[in-house]
């Protein structure tokens, strides 16, 4: 098969002769610039995507995909029929009630303001990953603290004739337990600012709990300010009777949670509001998306800098090959054919740099993921999370090739408008 002469001539111009090593070196530098730009972009986008997905997994491991609450009031009736109706909605996997309150935790080591969640131990494992996040204890321990912890907790009352009432159980985040100096079996007081009202003021309500479990979600915000008790104990402590704060729902596709939440609202009526996890954390994920976009745009300047090398390389080729260009024109080559010759040069540089840069970027990410380790007790992660999206790679490759092609336009136009008479006048 005979190739068009534009391809043959264009590829020949990229190969330097013995006396023209400068052109060959500039071609190599141009390819290296595109290669490094593509590799840096793929590496950065892969790390940014990995961190985003790791953060997303930690959030979804602690909070449910959809939160349902009644509009205008802070509580709603704990209705089993409502839970069943929600679970029958398409794509809704499970539902569980919860109570959400702000309280104080008081121990011998200090006082800490936290978020206290009352959960249904049996249903909680169906909507969140709290059971997997527990380092010590089990969900059932909230309702029935282990006998060993009961004995440890009641040793101080062993001399009294009346057997003390067993304290209910509580789960603490790893950082929260460390800050308050608490371990399994220790007693901690839960203080609610809303308590009985006497003649003068409102008296805070205090109740002791025993630590029956410690969890670690991987997010400092949760591990340092979140605690769990059973739903029944939360209703009794806050005098809620048979009411709850809301219902948390797990769905089969987390990225369709918004549309599923809309279906839930339509099914339950306008008196209920359903918010998906992306809406609840929209500020955080919007910031991560903006950061990834800006990092990509900034690193794209590496490829733009490499494109200037392409312009310089092609300009030098045009200056060196004026006699050959004039001969081609004298033999009948059109300006369009001359432009194609030098555009092909830029495309070859862009394609070569992209083809080398993509595996180089993957190699960089593989090295980072497997050999760059951290102290998990300090950074909450032992390795940098990495995930490369095919769409990101495609966008990087297309951008690099387009930039390389755009860099060829001016030198190619200069070559196309060359007057053969002027170029051959002194030959």
Features:
two-stranded antiparallel ribbon, alpha+beta, 54% helix, 2 domains
Quick summary:
With 427 residues, the chain is of the alpha+beta class.
Explain what the structure shows.
With 427 residues, the protein is of the alpha+beta class. The chain folds into 2 domains: 5-58 and 285-424, no CATH class; 72-269, no CATH class. The chain contains 18 helices and 12 strands. The chain has helices at residues 5-14, 21-62, 80-87, 121-127, 130-133, 147-153, 174-180, 220-223, 231-237, 257-268, 277-280, 282-320, 322-330, 335-371, 376-379, 390-407, 409-416, 420-424; strands spanning 66-70, 76-77, 92-107, 110-119, 134-136, 169-173, 187-192, 205-215, 226-230, 243-244, 246-251, 272-276. The protein has a 6-stranded mixed beta barrel with strand order 3-4-9-6-8-7, surrounded by 5 helices. A hairpin with a 2-residue loop joins strand 3 (92-107) and strand 4 (110-119). Helix 2 (21-62) crosses helix 14 (335-371), helix 12 (282-320) crosses helix 14 (335-371) and helix 12 runs parallel beside helix 17. It is elongated.
Strand and helix layout:
Blueprint: H1 5-14, H2 21-62, E1 66-70, E2 76-77, H3 80-87, E3 92-107, E4 110-119, H4 121-127, H5 130-133, E5 134-136, H6 147-153, E6 169-173, H7 174-180, E7 187-192, E8 205-215, H8 220-223, E9 226-230, H9 231-237, E10 243-244, E11 246-251, H10 257-268, E12 272-276, H11 277-280, H12 282-320, H13 322-330, H14 335-371, H15 376-379, H16 390-407, H17 409-416, H18 420-424
Parallel strand pairs: 4-9, 6-8
Antiparallel strand pairs: 1-11, 1-12, 2-10, 3-4, 3-7, 3-11, 5-8, 6-9, 7-8
């Amino acid at each position: 098969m005979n190739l068009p002469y534009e391809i043959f001539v264009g590829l020949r111009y990229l190969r330097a002769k013995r006396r023209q090593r400068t052109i060959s070196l500039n071609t190599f530098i141009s390819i290296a610039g595109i290669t490094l730009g593509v590799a840096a972009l793929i590496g950065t986008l892969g790390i940014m995507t990995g961190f985003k997905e790791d953060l997303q997994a930690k959030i979804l491991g602690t909070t449910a995909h959809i939160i349902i609450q009644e509009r205008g009031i802070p509580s709603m009736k704990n209705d089993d029929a409502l839970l069943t109706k929600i679970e029958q909605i398409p794509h809704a996997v499970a539902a569980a009630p919860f109570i959400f309150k702000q309280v104080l935790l008081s121990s011998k080591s200090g006082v800490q303001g936290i978020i206290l969640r009352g959960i249904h131990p049996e249903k909680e494992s169906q909507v969140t990953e709290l059971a997997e996040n527990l380092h010590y204890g089990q969900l059932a321990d909230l309702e029935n603290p282990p006998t060993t912890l009961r004995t440890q907790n009641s040793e101080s009352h062993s001399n009294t004739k009346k057997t003390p009432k067993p304290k209910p159980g509580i789960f603490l985040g790893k950082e929260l337990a460390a800050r308050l100096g608490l371990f399994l079996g220790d007693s901690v007081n839960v203080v609610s600012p809303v308590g009985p009202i006497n003649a003068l003021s409102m008296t805070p309500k205090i109740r002791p709990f025993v630590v029956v479990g410690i969890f670690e979600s991987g997010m400092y915000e949760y591990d340092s300010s979140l605690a769990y008790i059973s739903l029944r104990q939360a209703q009794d402590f806050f005098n809620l009777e048979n009411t709850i704060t809301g219902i948390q729902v797990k769905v089969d596709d987390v990225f369709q949670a918004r549309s599923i939440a809309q279906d839930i609202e339509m099914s339950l009526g306008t008196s209920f509001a359903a918010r998906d996890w992306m809406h609840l954390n929209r500020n955080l994920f919007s910031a991560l998306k903006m950061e990834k976009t800006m990092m990509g745009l900034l690193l794209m300047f590496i490829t733009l800098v490499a494109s200037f090398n392409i312009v310089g390389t092609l300009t030098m080729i045009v200056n060196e090959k004026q006699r050959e260009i004039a001969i081609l024109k004298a033999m009948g080559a059109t300006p369009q054919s001359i432009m194609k010759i030098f555009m092909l040069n830029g495309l070859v540089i862009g394609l070569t740099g992209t083809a080398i840069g993509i595996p180089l970027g993957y190699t960089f990410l593989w090295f980072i993921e497997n050999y760059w380790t951290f102290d998990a007790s300090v950074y909450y992660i032992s390795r940098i999370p990495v995930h490369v999206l095919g769409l990101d790679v495609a966008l990087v490759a297309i951008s690099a090739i387009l930039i390389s092609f755009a860099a060829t336009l001016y030198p190619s136009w200069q070559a196309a408008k060359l007057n053969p008479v002027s170029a051959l006048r002194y030959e």
